[in-house]
Amino acid sequence: MATSTTSQHGMGGAREAAAGGLTIFAAVMLFIVGTMGFFRGLMAVLEDKVFLSTPEYTFQFDLTTWGWIHLLLGIVAVVVSFGLFVAMKWARVLGVVVAVLVMIGNFLSIPYYPFWSLTLIAMNALVIWGLCVVKRDTL
Q: Could you give the number of structural domains in the chain?
């Protein structure tokens, strides 16, 4: 009887470690995504010459507008990543919401900087996966 209790506690510890590890992974990825988004936004606000011009794009905004969108989403992503690092419950839900918003923002701005947008979309998918894959009973 004691061995089965020990094995259950051993599995519980492994599950908690895995849940904590995935949360830290998502926090690090969200921090990186937020930092990259911040700098992308800053480059756009300062009208850097690395962005492509798109004459007839349905979701066309001024480059400065896209810059502010990415800059603000980047700041929010970094703040939420700090919440994930200290295991705040609100940060898990808000992390998914922010990752989805950043993903949508990058999708809509693909014509301006395609490679960067696709890279950040993939990174946000990893953030969402890391925050959603953990079972409720391990939290």
A: 1
